[in-house]
Amino acid sequence: MTVTTTPQTTATAIEVKGLVKDFTLRHNRSLKELAMAKIRKRPISDNFRALHGIDLTVHQGESLALLGFNGSGKSTLLKLISGVMRPDEGTIGVRGRIAGLIEVGAGFHPDLTGRENVFLNGAILGMDEATITARFDDIVAFSEIERFIDTEVKFYSSGMFLRLAFAVAVHTDPEVFLIDEILSVGDEPFQKKCLARIEELRAEGRTLVIVSHDLDMVANLCTRGILLEQGRIVADDTATNVVARMRGEA
Amino acid sequence: MAASDVTAAPLVAPGHGSGLLDVVRYRYLLKLLVRKEMRVRYRGSVMGLLWSYVKPGVQFAVFYFAMGEFLKLNESVPNFAVYLFSGIVVINFYTEAFGNATRSVVGNAPLIKKIFLPRELFSVSSAWVAAIHFLPQLVVLLIACFATGWRPGPIQILAAFLGFAIVGILAVGLGLLFGAINVLYRDFENIVDLLLMIVTWTSPVLYDWRKVADAVGGPNSWFMTLYQLNPVTAAVELFHWAFWYPTGAVRDASIPVELPPHLLWSGLWGLLIALVLLAAGQAVFRRIEGRFAQEL
Fold first, then answer.
1. What value of ipTM does the predicted structure carry?
2. Which residue from B15, B26, B113 is facing A86, i.e. has the nearest CB?
3. Which pTM does this prediction carry?
4. Among B126, B136, B160, B142, CA closest to B57
């Protein structure tokens, strides 16, 4: 099933074997509800299997699109690779530093200024003080909000907020980037700039794993695509072919 | 670092940190988290950090008049004001550090669900913030000590550090333990609040240890041993010994002041118990940590 578009000589960046993830859906938790469930002999929880034995090898420098409709398990897979969640079965191995850009601005605090948030968020994404200081000007220039950098973030418009958050995220330098639906940031010129930056990261030989519903964008950006359906990999091909299949063209 | 530099690096399972050791590696982030906490706490506040003088000051005044004047503890305990305050600062540090550490994991849910970090950072930074709030109180205590003829020996200074270490370690340990369990059952915030309500009374803060000893059958009874094995009691008594015992009024008291038995030993036992609870807290935290992202 593994169809790789990069030569086998490059090292593995991400190796996923037999990955299973279950979620327990608890209906209720209060004492009263638990007692009622006991009396009526109703189950107090349901199991839901989000991923059924995923096997996946991503090579260094590859750019992989995770595709699939809502609820297919894309984001769960990304969270497992980033380490936010742990698998129930199977193993995951990642080589090198990893940055999960699961949501821009997750570590931002509205009461801090833009400057303070750059440092805090940079440190959360794994940069040290010297690196953030060295890249601070680049980050601010990228976000184009120089004038407001010492204003508290709560006064920012949502566009300004996302720009700054995205600027910090793309200036971290991990070997593996996990990107979940964050490319639809800002207005069109800014989006173009973001895509250009992602291209640049790819050209530097970093590994990208991207989840997005913007099929045209991922078809252009990624070399390889994987289609998930109900927690199983059903297609592994070039991104363009997988996108075509999703649209029912192939 | 270019991507090619890591071809030789091993494949590592993500999401497995090395616990509290990671906090040392992430000390820069810890510093920023503490700074954030302080900024957020006093946002839009004119008095800012001054509040951390005002609150214990008012608390002290209330206890002083209630316990010292109305219940006449002034007469049985020389320099009761310093006695009272040196205990209160320990309890304040403990309740703030433990209480906030318990809430820290749930409070940082948005971050924990999105980005992998050593989550112990949140508990440790809560305790750190409490330590920052402890400092102004210590300054006030020292001023009161000097005003009442404080002349401590070097061992007494060490005893103060030991007391501080006991409370800090204990608060982080229990904070990790209850912070993790609180993710599964939010009841634990309330249980911890209850525990913290009692803690002022299970240690000799507002009264004198002899009252307990007299009530339970002497200083060598098993209950008294149990009472003294409470690490918070040990820390409070160490603070009394460091800040209250070497003041003028205690030296010149007509009836010599009797220290609780085995003071230093209960301090060392307290430290040991705190360390054991820290190890237990860390172990439980690591067991539950894998479920944080899906339970929050």
1. 0.82
2. B15
3. 0.88
4. B136
